[in-house]
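Bench log, entry 3. Co-assembly request; chain sequences pasted below exactly as received.
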Amino acid sequence: ENIFHNRDHSDVEMPSTHQAERITDKETAEQFLSKYGFLKPVNWEEVQSEETNLWSSDDFPVTSVLQEGSSTSRSGRSDSLFEPPEFIVALKEFQRVSGLPVTGVFDDATKTAMNKPRCGVPDKMDLNSTADHNSTSPALWNDTTITNETESEMFDFGVLNGTAQDNQHEPEGLGPIR
Amino acid sequence: KKRDLAALVHGRRHRRDVMEMGHVAFSKTVLKWRLIGEGYSSQLSVDDQRYIFRLAFRMWSEVSPLEFLEDQSSPLEDIDIRLGFGTGRHLGCTQRFDGAGREFAHAWFLGDIHFDDDEHFTAPNTGNGISLLKVAVHEIGHVLGLPHIYRTGSIMQPSYLPQEATFELDWMDRRAIQHLYGGCKGHFSTVFDWIRKERTQYGEVVVRFNTYFMRDSWYWLYENRNNRTRYGDPVAVQVGWHGIPSGGVDAHVHVWTRNTDAVYFFKGTQYWRYDGENDQVFTMDPDTGHRYPRLISEGFSGVSGPIDTAFFDRRDSHIYFFRGTDVYKFDIRANRLAAGFPKKITEIFPAVIPGNHPKGNLDAAYFSYLHNSIFLLKGTSYWRVAGMRDRLRRLSLPYNALMPQREVDQQWFDICNVHASALRI
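Structure output for the full assembly:
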């Protein structure tokens, strides 16, 4: 078990061996951007390796399945597969949606954001190719993600009239309270 | 081979085709879920884990037409949503977890949710760590078809934000899920404003009201200023209203004049007077000594139950009882039916637009203090009774004319059922 002493387990110690790899440099940042869909997939016909059949367009979901410590990462070849512009474009997109200054530079703020706890579902996916194949990779989504621009105008609530006032809420009797 | 296996495993999933709708959603509204036995967390008791997931599913059910049922007995392939904890390579999943930090969970379309048990998940209001409730609500959102949403306040933001005191599904997240599954519609048994009179320290009497919607054996408090129901509703009628039939009522009437202040609930052929001070029905009427429940025909001669609905009109101090296509106008001062009644509803409440009228069999007649208007509800629609202001604007409008039909869920938002099994939370 994980070691703890307090009754509410609030002091539980996570084993150091089970720590997630931190995003520290351009390479790990590239893996992050690829895993969560910011870096568009590349046709791997010629780069297919036996050990990690990462993906191809028809029989495996678009999103990469990075094997921890796998020998072949996206930039397994000596020269990075991604020309700088693509990496910078992806980095800027991540910075934009994360509300960071859009610098295109792998700076500290971006590093911090990439290391935050997050959901494993990619932020950008090609919905059609994944869902059709009963994807074995996390769910879903086409390239358009819902951002602030789609916020609709809040319902403008008129002023109360009459003598009575809407009492916020006063749970009556034994109503269960959450 | 892989695709066939996947199809076999996922083949029974009910889903609408992606291409047809541009997104994917379950095509049924009652969904079964289970925390799988080989996926228990080592950090929280199994009961805590199941309670948190039940609450997480309920939070989605409170804002969508979906209902969720925890099912621990059906064959696994009949379970729509399977949840489990694991670390590193886990539960036969193709995505391995990365240990403590960074990725804390992932979810599949219309399917399973896996939580990284290397993360320090905590129950609500206990210690710092990652709130399992918040993560569960997020991942369930994915399973139901929602993507990541980069909007402050959205539960679907990809990064985990330490939970403020409470978190709830806001207006935009509700619209997002209802975009996939539609809004919450349904008839109501009755709707009313409950009046509370309080005295301020200066001796003034202040009147407050709360709006309640009742449907069969459940009710919601509706918070007008927030355009939503109270978080955590619906609640069972018997929990909040003591002594009235637990299966629900037909009508609520608040007779409120200069010298009378009495609330009545009607069900079938009987009615009860309600004691607001002690929050229960009267067994004996403090003014008349009559015992409750009492026959409607005894208390309101000329009217016999069951009625469809009723309301008290403070303008003319009459109770209007509705039954089928008829309306009975009862004079509470003379304690008898007004002359010439019953009459047709269409006659007493004529349509502004010919033919645009509920005709009869109403569900609720609701005087709203907020809108200073009477609403007649039937099914998922309502008709507002034209008031003074309307008639000043359009002098031709007859008294009590019914404005055109509108949809209830466009005026009062997100009044959603939850599965009966979820009522005990």
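The two ends of chain A are 32 Å apart (CA to CA). Residues 43-83, 128-137, 140-165, 167-178 of chain A have pLDDT under 50 and may be disordered.
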